[in-house]
């Protein structure tokens, strides 16, 4: 079976540095095919489960939607480490919501896309367990009650 040595380090930034290296020295992150929703340079710790989970989920969603994707993100660690003002590590249209209203914001984005006839644009909302099942539960419940066309990821 063909195999490829896995490299656990990253040299330079994903967008530029890796691609300046010889192909043999680039990490898998540098492949041009990778959709790369969450860029390097954010402030999560190495190996942060939330950063990896979010990136894998959004990368998959980008592939599934042909990159026609907008995300709403509740206040929480994911928002804090990816978007220290005035920077952002997200490479998709991304909107920061309050701690408790990411589902409502996502609903609004989906409604706006519907009105504009952009039915091919899909919407994702993401939040931590607190933003989802504690302070945000009313907003989430409303989203399900209305059967809004949003994928919510806790
Ligand atoms: C109304 C309101 N109360 C409190 C806060 C402070 N606050 C910001 S993030 C956060 C906790 C987020 O926890 P969780 O949703 O589980 O996400 P995590 O950061 O763990 O990923 C709190 C209490 C806030 N931003 N807004």
Low-pLDDT stretches = none
Helix % is 25-40%
Structural class: alpha/beta
Q: Can you list the ligands bound to this structure?
A: thiamine diphosphate
From the N-terminal CA to the C-terminal CA, the straight-line distance is: 37 Å
Count of separate DSSP helical elements: 6
- What is the typical, i.e. mean, pLDDT? 87
Largest sheet: 4 strands, parallel
Task: Name the shape in a single word.
Answer: globular
- Order of strands, main sheet, comes to 2-1-3-4
Compute the number of structural domains: 2
Assembly type of the shown chains?
single chain
The value of Rg in angstroms is: 17 Å
Total DSSP E strands: 4
Strand content: 5-15%
H/E topology pattern: HHEHEHEHHE
Write up this protein.
The protein folds into 2 domains: 34 residues, no CATH class; 118 residues. Helix content is 36%, strand content 11%. A 4-stranded parallel sheet has the order 2-1-3-4, sandwiched between helices. It is globular and about 50 Å long. The model has no long low-confidence stretch (mean pLDDT 87). Bound molecules: thiamine diphosphate (TPP). Thiamine diphosphate binds next to α3 and α5.
Outline the secondary-structure elements.
Layout: H1 17-20, H2 49-64, E1 69-73, H3 77-82, E2 94-96, H4 102-115, E3 122-126, H5 129-134, H6 137-146, E4 150-153
Parallel strand pairs: 1-2, 1-3, 3-4
Helix pairs in contact: 4-6
The chain binds thiamine diphosphate.
Thiamine diphosphate (TPP) is lined by residues 50, 75-78, 99, 127-131.
């Amino acid at each position: 079976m063909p195999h490829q040595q896995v490299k656990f380090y990253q040299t330079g930034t994903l967008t530029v540095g890796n691609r300046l290296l010889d192909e043999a020295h680039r990490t898998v992150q540098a492949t041009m095919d990778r959709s790369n929703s969450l860029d390097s340079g954010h402030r999560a710790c190495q190996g942060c489960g939330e950063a990896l989970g979010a990136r894998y989920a959004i990368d998959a969603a980008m592939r599934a939607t042909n990159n026609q994707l907008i995300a709403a993100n509740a206040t929480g660690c994911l928002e804090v480490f990816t978007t220290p003002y005035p920077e952002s590590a997200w490479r998709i249209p991304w909107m920061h919501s309050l701690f408790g209203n990411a589902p409502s914001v996502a609903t609004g984005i989906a409604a706006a896309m519907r009105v504009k006839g952009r039915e091919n644009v899909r919407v994702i909302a993401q939040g931590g367990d607190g933003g989802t099942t504690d302070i945000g539960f009313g907003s989430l419940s409303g989203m399900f009650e209305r059967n809004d066309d949003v994928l919510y990821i806790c």
